[in-house]
Amino acid sequence: GENVEQHPSTLSVQEGDSAVIKCTYSDSASNYFPWYKQELGKRPQLIIDIRSNVGEKKDQRIAVTLNKTAKHFSLHITETQPEDSAVYFCAASRSSGDKLTFGTGTRLAVRP
Amino acid sequence: GAVVSQHPSWVICKSGTSVKIECRSLDFQATTMFWYRQFPKQSLMLMATSNEGSKATYEQGVEKDKFLINHASLTLSTLTVTSAHPEDSSFYICSARAGPRTGGSNYGYTFGSGTRLTVV
To answer: What pLDDT, in 10s, does the model give residues A72-86?
Structure first.
């Protein structure tokens, strides 16, 4: 089955700096890669996703890049703000709607 | 947008009792429901996948007789933790997928709000 690894497990940045979280996956058939933000005790919130026919996608301060050959994808958050502090999970599936395999999570802390 | 209502949001039960968790899709028909478990400071681990009208498919290591899943309608799926023990204490969360022509905006995932289960 699919295995998704995520690094780093914790990340602390100064407000205004950029944050990068990286994930690798094992199943070459995976072609849907969402990123979720989860606050303590809450449901995961989709922040951005990318499909395998696209190499990069951007939404304001958030961007995701995908390298299918290397089987890795990354989340980039620019101009970080304290409210970006949360746990971020990457995930992968064979198609949008198939079961998701989550990464181990990254706890991001943005220092004011 | 698509909404999944999950209840209860938290429950405390005695060891040996059973607890039922419900997930309802409010404005779309959920052809598939995924059930996840999340221990503190850990990731979401898929427990089982259920399709409306058929038996659930459980992930390796998940006891199907302990975690009973029912998906009898396109808008309701339930997870029953039977004979709960303290090690079952966790955050349980469902995620619904809408199928084609069933009202969902896309094939994406809609998460419930989660249930914090504490077994004492």
So the answer is: 999 999 999 999 999
Which residues of A fall below an 8 Å CB-CB distance to B?
A: 34, 41-44, 46, 49, 89, 95-97, 99-105
User: CB under 8 Å to B54, separation ≥6 — which residues?
Assistant: B71
Biggest CA–CA distance in chain A, Å, is 41
Residue burial A51-85, b: 16+ Cβ < 10 Å; e: rest: eeeeeeeeeeebbbbbeeeebbbbbbbeebeeebb
Which pair of structure tokens corresponds to residue B15? 């060891």
The first and second tokens of residue A57, run together, are 């996608």
pLDDT < 50 regions, chain B: 101-106
Q: Measured between alpha carbons, how far is B13 from A30 in angstroms, rounded to an integer? A: 39
Best residue in B7, B10, B43, B117 for a mutation probing chain A (most A CBs within 10 Å): B43
Give the end-to-end CA distance of chain B in Å, rounded to a whole number: 37
Please, which residues bridge with residue B6 across strands? B23
Q: What is the dihedral of CA B32, B29, A29, B46, to 10 degrees?
A: -40
Per-residue CA distances from A59 to A48, A63, B81 (Å): 8, 6, 40
Judged by a CB distance cut-off of 8 A, whether residue B51 touches chain A is no
Give dist(CA A105, CA A49) in Å, integer: 16
